[in-house]
Design goal:
By secondary structure, this protein is α+β, with helices and mostly antiparallel strands. It is built from 4 helices and 3 strands, in the order H-E-E-E-H-H-H. It has a 3-stranded antiparallel β-sheet with strand order 1-2-3. It is elongated and about 55 Å long. The mean pLDDT is about 90.
Length: about 110
Amino acid sequence: MFYNPSVPDSNHARLDRVLSQLRLYEHPLLNFSARLKGEDVEVIIQFKDATIPVHTYYFDLHPRDLDDPQFEWSFQRQLYDALHDYFVEMFIRTPQDQADRRRKEL
């Protein structure tokens, strides 16, 4: 199957490997996808409810990670780390935002 004839087959195999792993994950709030980004594979995490203005989260998987014999385990760790980062970045206010606290008298 050719996605783009100018991209080496090894890159397509890596993308397919990531897409196969992503199909094993289902989340009630998030959609997962991936695409080629040079020699890397970019994983994309999007909030399902498009009416809520939340950014899309991206992280790259490098060839050395994609070719690792323990890929499935390292992928899960990277995905969970990314999910943690993504949800933390969704905060609208944190205790460290002193200007917002003063404005709202909190």
